[in-house]
Amino acid sequence: MAGGGSLAMRVLSRCGWIRGSDSAVLSRLRDEAVVRPGFLSQAEEDTLTQELEPQLRRRRYEYDHWDAAIHGFRETEKSRWSDASQAILQRVQAAAFGPDQTLLSLVHVLDLEPKGYIKPHVDSVKFCGSTIAGLSLLSPSVMKLVHTQEPEQWLELLLEPGSLYILRGSARYDFSHEILRDEESFFGEHRVPRGRRISVICRSLPEGIGPGRPGKPPPAC
Ligand SMILES: O=C(O)CCC(=O)C(=O)O
Ligand SMILES: [Fe+2]
Ligand SMILES: [Mn+2]
Predict the structure, then answer these.
(1) Which residue lies with its CA nearest to atom 2 of ligand 1?
(2) Residues near ion ligand 2 (Cβ under 5 Å)
(3) Which of 110, 121, 129, 140 is deepest in the core (most CB within 10 A)?
Protein backbone atom coordinates (compact mmCIF):
# COMPACT_ATOMS: atom_id res chain seq x y z
CA MET A 1 0.00 0.00 0.00
CA ALA A 2 1.36 3.39 -0.91
CA GLY A 3 2.26 5.77 1.88
CA GLY A 4 3.19 3.37 4.72
CA GLY A 5 6.90 3.97 4.36
CA SER A 6 6.54 7.66 3.74
CA LEU A 7 4.42 8.05 6.88
CA ALA A 8 7.27 6.54 8.92
CA MET A 9 9.65 8.95 7.19
CA ARG A 10 7.43 11.88 8.08
CA VAL A 11 7.34 10.84 11.73
CA LEU A 12 11.11 10.59 11.91
CA SER A 13 12.01 13.62 9.88
CA ARG A 14 10.92 17.12 10.82
CA CYS A 15 12.20 18.44 7.52
CA GLY A 16 14.93 17.50 5.08
CA TRP A 17 17.73 18.20 7.53
CA ILE A 18 16.60 17.02 10.98
CA ARG A 19 15.83 13.38 11.84
CA GLY A 20 14.98 11.99 15.23
CA SER A 21 14.42 8.80 17.21
CA ASP A 22 10.71 9.59 17.61
CA SER A 23 8.16 12.25 16.88
CA ALA A 24 7.95 13.37 20.53
CA VAL A 25 11.61 14.36 20.69
CA LEU A 26 11.35 16.05 17.30
CA SER A 27 8.45 18.20 18.39
CA ARG A 28 9.82 18.85 21.89
CA LEU A 29 13.05 20.23 20.42
CA ARG A 30 11.34 22.08 17.58
CA ASP A 31 12.63 25.47 18.74
CA GLU A 32 15.73 24.22 20.55
CA ALA A 33 17.58 22.37 17.80
CA VAL A 34 17.23 24.36 14.60
CA VAL A 35 18.97 24.10 11.21
CA ARG A 36 18.73 26.87 8.62
CA PRO A 37 20.17 25.52 5.37
CA GLY A 38 21.41 28.18 2.97
CA PHE A 39 21.70 30.78 5.73
CA LEU A 40 24.83 32.07 3.98
CA SER A 41 25.02 33.00 0.33
CA GLN A 42 27.97 31.56 -1.61
CA ALA A 43 29.58 35.01 -1.50
CA GLU A 44 29.22 35.15 2.29
CA GLU A 45 30.68 31.67 2.65
CA ASP A 46 33.66 32.72 0.52
CA THR A 47 34.11 35.91 2.54
CA LEU A 48 34.35 34.02 5.81
CA THR A 49 36.54 31.24 4.43
CA GLN A 50 38.99 33.66 2.81
CA GLU A 51 39.22 35.72 5.97
CA LEU A 52 39.85 32.68 8.18
CA GLU A 53 42.19 30.74 5.94
CA PRO A 54 45.43 32.69 6.58
CA GLN A 55 44.89 32.61 10.33
CA LEU A 56 44.15 28.89 10.37
CA ARG A 57 47.00 28.01 8.04
CA ARG A 58 49.49 29.19 10.64
CA ARG A 59 48.38 26.43 13.00
CA ARG A 60 48.92 22.69 12.97
CA TYR A 61 46.16 20.13 13.17
CA GLU A 62 46.02 18.57 16.63
CA TYR A 63 45.34 14.92 17.33
CA ASP A 64 45.79 15.10 21.05
CA HIS A 65 45.48 12.55 23.75
CA TRP A 66 42.94 9.76 24.08
CA ASP A 67 40.28 11.60 26.07
CA ALA A 68 40.13 14.84 24.08
CA ALA A 69 36.69 15.68 22.68
CA ILE A 70 37.96 16.85 19.29
CA HIS A 71 40.34 15.00 16.99
CA GLY A 72 42.09 16.29 13.88
CA PHE A 73 41.41 19.95 14.36
CA ARG A 74 42.93 23.37 14.58
CA GLU A 75 41.15 26.31 16.09
CA THR A 76 41.31 29.95 16.89
CA GLU A 77 39.25 32.54 18.69
CA LYS A 78 38.59 35.71 16.81
CA SER A 79 37.39 39.09 17.96
CA ARG A 80 38.31 41.36 15.04
CA TRP A 81 36.48 40.83 11.80
CA SER A 82 36.18 42.62 8.48
CA ASP A 83 33.04 44.70 8.02
CA ALA A 84 31.60 42.09 5.66
CA SER A 85 32.09 39.27 8.18
CA GLN A 86 30.80 41.41 11.01
CA ALA A 87 27.59 41.93 9.06
CA ILE A 88 27.25 38.14 8.73
CA LEU A 89 27.83 37.64 12.45
CA GLN A 90 25.20 40.26 13.19
CA ARG A 91 22.74 38.25 11.10
CA VAL A 92 23.64 35.18 13.16
CA GLN A 93 23.09 37.12 16.36
CA ALA A 94 19.68 38.36 15.21
CA ALA A 95 18.64 34.87 14.05
CA ALA A 96 19.82 32.88 17.07
CA PHE A 97 20.00 35.05 20.18
CA GLY A 98 17.47 37.04 22.14
CA PRO A 99 17.88 40.76 22.84
CA ASP A 100 18.59 39.97 26.49
CA GLN A 101 21.48 37.62 25.68
CA THR A 102 25.10 38.78 25.65
CA LEU A 103 27.52 36.97 23.35
CA LEU A 104 31.05 35.89 24.13
CA SER A 105 33.14 38.51 22.35
CA LEU A 106 35.51 35.86 21.02
CA VAL A 107 34.01 33.83 18.22
CA HIS A 108 35.25 30.23 18.14
CA VAL A 109 36.59 29.04 14.78
CA LEU A 110 37.16 25.31 14.40
CA ASP A 111 38.80 23.66 11.39
CA LEU A 112 38.26 19.89 11.21
CA GLU A 113 40.33 17.99 8.70
CA PRO A 114 38.52 15.34 6.60
CA LYS A 115 39.32 12.66 9.18
CA GLY A 116 38.59 15.00 12.09
CA TYR A 117 35.59 14.55 14.35
CA ILE A 118 34.06 15.70 17.62
CA LYS A 119 33.11 13.17 20.29
CA PRO A 120 29.86 13.55 22.24
CA HIS A 121 30.05 16.30 24.84
CA VAL A 122 27.98 19.02 26.46
CA ASP A 123 29.59 22.46 26.31
CA SER A 124 30.77 23.59 29.73
CA VAL A 125 28.15 25.58 31.63
CA LYS A 126 30.98 27.56 33.22
CA PHE A 127 32.00 29.14 29.94
CA CYS A 128 28.92 29.01 27.77
CA GLY A 129 25.32 30.14 28.27
CA SER A 130 22.08 28.69 26.98
CA THR A 131 22.60 29.24 23.23
CA ILE A 132 25.17 27.94 20.74
CA ALA A 133 24.94 28.96 17.07
CA GLY A 134 27.27 27.60 14.39
CA LEU A 135 27.91 28.30 10.74
CA SER A 136 29.34 25.45 8.67
CA LEU A 137 31.73 26.05 5.77
CA LEU A 138 33.29 23.86 3.04
CA SER A 139 32.06 20.32 3.85
CA PRO A 140 28.72 18.85 4.87
CA SER A 141 28.65 16.94 8.14
CA VAL A 142 26.22 15.28 10.50
CA MET A 143 25.76 16.54 14.04
CA LYS A 144 24.19 14.00 16.37
CA LEU A 145 22.41 14.93 19.59
CA VAL A 146 21.85 12.20 22.21
CA HIS A 147 19.95 12.67 25.47
CA THR A 148 22.44 12.31 28.32
CA GLN A 149 20.00 10.39 30.56
CA GLU A 150 17.89 8.59 27.94
CA PRO A 151 20.19 7.71 25.05
CA GLU A 152 17.36 6.22 23.01
CA GLN A 153 16.33 9.83 22.39
CA TRP A 154 18.41 11.37 19.63
CA LEU A 155 18.40 13.78 16.72
CA GLU A 156 20.56 14.01 13.61
CA LEU A 157 21.21 17.39 12.03
CA LEU A 158 22.43 17.59 8.44
CA LEU A 159 24.81 20.55 8.30
CA GLU A 160 25.48 21.59 4.75
CA PRO A 161 28.01 24.28 3.87
CA GLY A 162 26.35 27.65 4.34
CA SER A 163 23.94 26.36 6.98
CA LEU A 164 23.38 27.74 10.47
CA TYR A 165 22.52 25.50 13.39
CA ILE A 166 21.20 26.67 16.74
CA LEU A 167 21.21 24.66 19.96
CA ARG A 168 19.44 26.19 22.93
CA GLY A 169 17.70 25.18 26.14
CA SER A 170 17.20 21.44 26.47
CA ALA A 171 19.04 20.66 23.22
CA ARG A 172 22.08 22.45 24.62
CA TYR A 173 21.92 21.22 28.25
CA ASP A 174 20.23 17.78 28.19
CA PHE A 175 21.69 16.38 24.98
CA SER A 176 25.30 15.77 24.05
CA HIS A 177 26.38 16.86 20.56
CA GLU A 178 29.02 15.40 18.28
CA ILE A 179 30.22 15.67 14.68
CA LEU A 180 30.37 12.18 13.18
CA ARG A 181 33.63 10.89 11.77
CA ASP A 182 33.73 10.11 8.06
CA GLU A 183 33.15 6.34 8.48
CA GLU A 184 30.00 7.02 10.54
CA SER A 185 28.82 10.06 8.64
CA PHE A 186 25.27 9.08 7.67
CA PHE A 187 22.05 11.07 7.80
CA GLY A 188 19.67 8.15 8.14
CA GLU A 189 20.53 5.94 5.18
CA HIS A 190 22.13 8.80 3.34
CA ARG A 191 25.94 8.81 3.32
CA VAL A 192 27.43 12.27 3.96
CA PRO A 193 31.13 12.07 2.99
CA ARG A 194 33.25 14.33 5.13
CA GLY A 195 35.81 16.76 3.80
CA ARG A 196 37.53 19.55 5.60
CA ARG A 197 34.97 21.56 7.56
CA ILE A 198 35.29 24.96 9.17
CA SER A 199 32.75 26.06 11.76
CA VAL A 200 32.23 29.52 13.17
CA ILE A 201 30.55 29.27 16.55
CA CYS A 202 28.88 32.04 18.55
CA ARG A 203 27.87 31.42 22.14
CA SER A 204 25.98 33.35 24.75
CA LEU A 205 27.70 34.20 28.00
CA PRO A 206 26.80 32.08 30.98
CA GLU A 207 23.79 33.65 32.64
CA GLY A 208 24.77 36.00 35.43
CA ILE A 209 27.99 37.11 33.69
CA GLY A 210 27.36 40.50 32.21
CA PRO A 211 29.72 42.57 30.07
CA GLY A 212 30.18 45.02 32.92
CA ARG A 213 31.43 42.38 35.29
CA PRO A 214 35.08 42.79 36.16
CA GLY A 215 37.64 40.14 35.38
CA LYS A 216 38.80 38.28 32.32
CA PRO A 217 36.26 37.20 29.72
CA PRO A 218 35.73 33.46 29.93
CA PRO A 219 37.55 31.25 27.42
CA ALA A 220 35.51 29.54 24.73
CA CYS A 221 33.83 26.28 25.64
O1 LIG B 1 32.02 22.50 15.05
C2 LIG B 1 30.93 22.69 15.58
O3 LIG B 1 29.97 23.13 14.95
C4 LIG B 1 30.72 22.36 17.03
C5 LIG B 1 31.95 22.50 17.87
C6 LIG B 1 31.72 22.11 19.31
O7 LIG B 1 30.87 21.33 19.61
C8 LIG B 1 32.54 22.73 20.36
O9 LIG B 1 33.54 23.38 20.08
O10 LIG B 1 32.15 22.61 21.54
FE1 LIG C 1 30.32 21.70 21.61
MN1 LIG D 1 34.40 23.32 22.69
Answers:
(1) 199
(2) 123
(3) 129
Could you tell me the CA-to-CA distances from 201 to 63, 65, 78, 124, 178 in Å, in that order? 21, 24, 10, 14, 14
150: left (phi over 0), alpha (psi -120 to 50) or beta: beta
Q: Is 221 in the pocket of ligand 1 (CB under 6 A)?
A: yes
Q: What is the pLDDT of residues 149-188, one digit of tens each?
A: 999 999 999 999 999 999 999 999 999 999 999 999 999 9
List b or e across 67-78, with b for residues whose CB sees 16 or more CB atoms inside 10 angstroms.
eeebbbbbbbeb
Sequence-distant (≥ 6) Cβ neighbours of residue 206 within 8 angstroms: 125, 126, 127, 128, 129, 218
**Ligand 2: distance of its center to the CA of 101 in Å?**
19
Determine the distance separating the centroid of ligand 1 and the alpha carbon of 126, expressed in angstroms. Answer: 16
**Which amino acid, one-letter code, is at 4?**
G
The predicted structure's pLDDT at residue 67: 67
> Is ipTM beyond 0.90?
yes
Atom of ligand 1 nearest to the CA of 108: 9
Ligand 1 proximity of 177 Cβ (cutoff 6 Å): yes
Q: For 1-10, how does the pLDDT look when each residue is reduced to its tens digit (9 = 90+)?
A: 333 445 445 4
- Ligand 1 near 134 CB (within 6 A): yes
Whether 130 and 168 have beta carbons less than 8 Å apart is answered as yes
Give the whole-number percent of the chain exceeding pLDDT 90: 84
